[in-house]
Amino acid sequence: MSVPQKRKHIRTADFRHGAKLHKGANGSHYHPHKKPRYVDLSDDDLPQSRKKPEMNGTTSHHKMVNGHTLKNAKSKHERNGQASPSVNGISAGEGSTTKKPNSSANTQLQEQRRQLPIAKGMCREALVEEIKKNDVTVLLGETGSGKTTQVPQYLLESDIAGTGTIAVTQPRRVAATSLAARVSKEQATPLGTRVGYAVRFDEKYTLQTRIKYMTDGMIVRELMSDPLLLKYSVIVVDEAHERTLRTDLLLANLKTIQRKRNAAEDAKGKGKADKLNPLKIVVMSATLDAEKFSRFFHNAKIIYVKGRQHPVTIYHSAESQIDYVDAAMRTFFQIHIDQPPGDVLIFLPGQEDIESLQKSLSFFTTHLPTTNPSVLILPMYASQSPTSNAKVFDPTPPNTRKCILATNIAETSITIPGVKYVIDTGKCKEKQYLARDSGGGFDTLLTRDITKSSAMQRAGRAGREVRLSSPLIPFSLLIKHDTQRAKAENINLISHLPVYSALKTLWLLGAIDKDQKLTPLGRQMALFPVEPHLSRSILASSPTTSSSSSSSSVPPTSSQGCTKELLTITSVISSSSKLFLDISTSTSTSSSSSTASARIKFKHPSGDHLTILNTVRAYDDISSQGSKHERKEWCKKHCVNERALTEAKKIREQLVDVCRKLGLDPELSCGENEGPVLASLGYGLVGNSAFLQPDGSYKQTMGHSIIKIHPGSTMMNEKVPAIIYDELVYTNQIYARGVSAIGKNFFVKHPALSQRQA
DNA sequence: ACAATGGGT
């Protein structure tokens, strides 16, 4: 089989997410000119050696010695398993610690556990031994090795965890919940007892829970109330290679926490320190990034675990696919008509593509001869309800082929039973920051090609894969191209720009001071689980706090409190789904007018923010009087998305809790006098402001870009001297979304802006 | 003159 060559991308996100902005748990802070104390985890120092193994990365049959441990990853070639024979065969290690099966289903489950690569040979013993010996262990496990489900159980079944909880962090919600369900079954205990999970708005665990799967964002939140994470005796950071800001932040904090806790343990005998339980850290990664994590933790031991149980056959499309949705559809039918039973998983970049493919698939499947099995199409993406996402795990009905259309939500750590074929469009979406200096100054969400490790992860979801990306681009050419680009744009500068920009925003909001130290205001802001500009707006709505904490960069406070209103508006803005729905079925002209009329009904002359407030107030009126049915009808009639409102309500409850903790009155209301609402929003959105230009467009106050008001805004046809907006979206032009008119005077008074204009 | 949204709290 030929070795497919895959494009190596410069990932802007890696620069943005570089490990440089981290604040240590001890309050240390970022200095742009200082080198970080710890080894840089970002890709800036990407060694040449990494590229070479990657070329072999997609070969389907990795041969790796089971349980083979290497200190500090010195011999990289061994990882490609050149010709090392596998030493399977000795199925030791399952004797004494295995639970007694209590049913035939459980017997089967335990047999499956024993068949996992990680359970074979001496792997389990070696693993437990190493983790016992070392404070930090880096585990490089290939897809399908079983590390995510088994390692926590091994830790539990040995005495490593003591009486504490084992936390296993995941980058995705569905992964955390479905893993907990799976491992619960393997432990033969009800979900939420011995094995549980915690994701936002949904948790199932008790104080007795020993293994807790959770999203990394969740544990980062817990860090604020429990800075040493004393609840946990072992923290397993899974999918560490995903490298988001959160995982980097978590790893940086864990290093500090471990130093404190384990030092206290050493000093215990001398009676110096309080009794702190020591912390074990296990970092699990599916890619060769393991070396970086090892270096970060003072050359922690790296353990390699062999991968998948069944070889994956990868088919590439013969040529580059431009219309990848169409290509995915044609590939699906090739599989459906020619191939034996087995469910299909299709990876697509976003909701829009998923919906469009769903439409065409369901159209064509109804026209198939009845001799074919029927097709059950199941979409899966984060902004869909958890219940709908959970449907993909249901068993496939008889004489049916399940076809799952997923974003990268399904990329890691989930196993969908029955999936035998994966069709990968090779695309994903990612937020990228477009630096001010290159005409931007805002985030973009663009479709791009996936990375090599993503491709491997996706392939790992099944036994067979059809990949629609083109393998024809010569690898060497791309490296050259990337180097040129890096040179042209001055890579070092680029890597720092977003950081500077983020710091500037925080400074503008008063969250950090000139030395980049978190201010008391910033500390309060961080407690709210919303974007900084929104938490700043909430705090501005309470007269007492903003006057007491106001620094020189903050204008005088509004006289009247309006926290109640701000909580409503910011929770709706934070919701992941849109408040107003467009019914874009067949009648395009009439539907757009009906959406418009729905908005006009609640439209507030000042713009979208108070329109949101009007809508929620109207909805609350209806729900307090009417039945559930009437409420639904009302939403339908006014093109209001009830899911956005229910999600906003849950977010609002969280925000209310934070307010109470801070001693703010969440009921503080300005009633019908809505002036203070916009004034408060202005505090947070000061960087998101623009002035009217003679030609009717707007120009950023804090950037050079010309922007237009988004056609979905109530302000679309209005010409006002100045606006604030929630965000910019970049499509053919730069559009401002969530727009309100604001008095020009507010900004003239703002020191940060007047300074700039002077 | 025309609307593009991955993942996480």
Automatic annotation (TrEMBL):
Residues 81-110 have a biased composition (Polar residues). GO terms for cellular component: nucleolus; ribonucleoprotein complex. Gene3D superfamilies: 1.20.120.1080, P-loop containing nucleotide triphosphate hydrolases. Residues 128-306 form the Helicase ATP-binding domain. Residues 1-115, 539-561 are annotated as: Disordered. It is an enzyme of class 3 (hydrolase). This is RNA helicase. Residues 1-10, 60-77 have a biased composition (Basic residues). The keyword Nucleotide-binding applies. GO terms for molecular function: ATP binding; double-stranded RNA binding; hydrolase activity; RNA helicase activity. Belongs to the DEAD box helicase family. DEAH subfamily. It comes from the Eukaryota. One of its GO terms (biological process) is positive regulation of transcription by RNA polymerase I.
